Amino acid sequence: MSSSTSYTPSKVPFEHYAPQYRCCCNSVHVRQGTQIIGVIQTVCAVFALIVFLFSSHVDAVWSILETASVFGEIVVITLLFVAIKKENPRFLLPYLVYEVC
Q1: Is the pLDDT of residue 34 over 70?
Q2: What ranges do the domains of the chain cover?
Q3: Which residues pair with 28 in a beta bridge?
């Protein structure tokens, strides 16, 4: 009696570089595109914070709103990078909601 075991995979391997997972005119992977967007958004947030901190004429209400907006943006961008690191798309939802609003 010979026992032959045949290997049948339960899943097909995930194709990371399939065309449907590419963005920016099919030039980069979605993960890399998300990283680029996150870096650009971080640079813009830092620039906005610097401009806000060094502005001389600021209204009290405006300063509270601007501070809350910048800190909210920092939290959302942090969650964007957490989503990339953990490969969990749920962490992308706050970024999408923030950008829509």
Answers
A1: yes
A2: 19-100
A3: 23
